[in-house]
Amino acid sequence: MVILEHKGLYWSKIKGTEDGKTIEPDEDYVILFGKASIVIEASEENIKAGRSISIITYGMGVYWAKAAAKKFEGQVEIIDLRTLAPIDEQGIFESARKHSKVMVLTEEPVNNGFAESIAARISENCFKALDAPVKVIGAENLPAIPLNSILEKTMLPNADKVEKAIGDLLGY
User: I need a surface site. Which of 8, 20, 23, 36 has the fewest CB within 10 A?
Assistant: First the structure.
């Protein structure tokens, strides 16, 4: 088993991740492998009117998406994958078909990455239900994350970049 953790979520020190702080669950707490979690749901009214999107993400992407979704109340469903292998394809496809507009959000560089693989699976399996191309948001295609905070902010996704992408996708 490999566990990926975002260092920015440790102690929730990064602005926008405060709700990452939780009380340690009891010994009976279980997270199912291969089962995604719905973090935020869009309203039925917006779903029926075609004014909603699904954001498929994990790790820090959940917090970027939650911050960005505040400006689009009732229009965004956020799916936290929680595990990548196994992955909840059924949950991803159900959300894609329900909203017809999908964003895959990751911290990794976009080109040739896992997020593009998810986007390709969505396109292949949900093509007839989609109203827009699947949008992938990720880091700039650079070899390493810079240590300089200004360069890091430029390279990585953030709530502002996700917010713009949500607006673009909703307007497609």
Answer: 23
Over the stretch 3-20, which tens digit does the pLDDT of each residue have? 666 666 665 556 666 666
Locate tokens 């070899």: which residue? 143
Classify domain 33-170 by CATH number.
3.40.50.920
Phi then psi dihedrals of residue 94, to 5 deg: -60, -45
Cβ neighbour number for residue 9 with a 10 Å cutoff: 16
Query: Which residue from 105, 97, 99 is spatially nearest to 41, judged by alpha carbons?
Result: 99
**Cβ atoms within 10 A of the Cβ of 90, count?**
11
What's the whole-model pTM score? 0.88
List pLDDT tens digits, range 121-161. Answer: 999 999 999 999 999 999 998 888 788 878 888 898 999 99
Residues 6+ apart with CB under 8 A from 96: 54, 56, 102, 122, 125, 126, 129, 130, 134
Sign of the CA dihedral with 61 first, then 67, 72, and 73 last: positive
Determine which helix (DSSP H) or strand (DSSP E) holds 65, and give its type and residue range.
helix 60-69
In the chain, domain spans? 33-170
CA angle, 160 then 104 then 114, to 5°: 120
DSSP state of 111: T
